[in-house]
User: What shape does this take?
Amino acid sequence: MLDDLYREIILDHYRSPMNRGRVEHPDIHAEGKNPLCGDELIITASLEDESILEIKFDGHGCSISQASASMLTEQVKGRRLTEAEDLVELIKSMFKGEVEIDPDELGDLEALQGIRRYPVRIKCATLAWNALQVGIDTHRSSLEDAEAAPELAVFTEHSI
Amino acid sequence: MAGKTATGKLKTQDHQAGALDVAAVRRDFPVLGQTVNGKKLVYLDNGATSQKPQSVIDTLTRYYEEYNSNVHRGIHALSQEATERYEEARGKIASFIGAASEREIIFVKNSTEAINLVAYGWARKYLKPGDEVITTETEHHSNIVPWQLVAESTGARFRYLPVRDHSAPFDIDGLRSLITSRTRLVAVTHVSNVLGTVTPVADVAEMAHAAGAVLLVDGSQSAPHMPLDVVDLDVDFFAVTGHKMLGPTGIGFLYAREELLDRMDPFLSGGDMIATVTMQGATWNELPYKFEAGTPNIADSIGLGAAVDYLSTLGMDRIEAHERTISEYAIERLQEIDGLTLYGPTDASLKGAVFSFNVDGIHSHDVGQVLDSEGVAVRTGHHCAQPLMAALGIGSAARASAYFYNFEEEIDTLVDAIRKTQKFFS
Assistant: This one.
């Protein structure tokens, strides 16, 4: 039964995460926190023409939150911000059971579907995605002053 | 009768003599016999809530099937029966903790409500700017947040005893140096829900009283596990939740010295807590009813009475002795695991049967998940003690917490499951 949750792809991302670290001079700087389990993720990204040029994640958390963050960086790198937002929505809808993920199109992300059967772990998996979304929102609302360092956007999960 | 089943069920137990017959005791708990995820359930989440014996379950059913009725107001037979049973439960609780009078037992929904009752009924009435409330960094949030709010609303100072060494005994000298002539209230847990550390309550009481302060003790993690005498301990307020001591959820009690209760304001107001009401005002009912507004949780109060019967029949001394044995064994076995950090004292005589730990490189949620797949139920997360987690420099921990119905063999299963977790994530 553990294999449903901890699919081999998830364990691979956990053991050897993609894009770990911080982007220098980021345009997006977001933090995702889950006080219930003490998880903290930092997502930094640089943009070019509203597309994600580079994106990295840092911080600590359980295997699910780390693997999901690793997959996120892999999937949204090179995408337009609007596409990244669509993907955030898709992931959230998938966890609500509203849509299925097509492995041909989204590769590793399909492995996250197994987490649906473990409701208490869904928030672990969505932490990075929620953080990215608040990062994008904050980036948009601060576009007027493009020269300033990005404002830290914080997403805090609630326990219920 | 609440006690009849418990007594009948426990014929196999040699009352108050010799060690507990754990195998016999377990047969009284329907939940414990099941399998989870194809494995035999190993329930080690007793710090979160205990399982319920058949006698408690039957008491609840019998109330609803045979004499469900409101209390203190009916002239009819069912109401009289309900009132009698409800008050009988209060009496059982009073003797269980050694209270001088039943008037000192207030039914509440849990320890949180008990502490808030003191925060609103006593602290907000008597604390002045510059007065001090002292608590500790190891407290459950329920013994921190109410005092922070009290400090905010009265101008009193909120002070706390920091955790310097999680494995040390309770820092009584540290507390002594913190108490001043302005200290009005000391609020401490009896047994830490994370570290298991036992507070020397009688010593703390002496210290607090010498300074002219009152003492509130959170007994959530002690009342289920050890013999208690609130008069010997000399506490002023003692907060207990019922569901960790075999009782139903949604019921607990506050013990308070009568003299303090007399001087306090009501917490919740409305029906049942009044003597007279006119459109110009109201006068309060006698103790303990002054603090029990509205229809109380009748069924669960009576259920808690049955839980107390069960515990008393087993004998709190024997329960404590068995848990001590489990603690000694668990501390020894857990320390054998490379890469495991155990929080709290490693001397079983200093702590309750609570074992919080982390495994190097593996998040507590992942540990809890693999343990669950092996049928082992533990709690993971911050345990409603975020300040303590911060002091320990961790975000979360796994916690195994035992009760009198746990076997040493179940500790072996826990240890094997932790080793499996390490293998799984290596």
Remarks:
- Chain A has a mean pLDDT of 91.
- Strands of chain A lie at 28-34, 39-48, 51-60, 153-156.
- The radius of gyration of chain A is 15 Å.
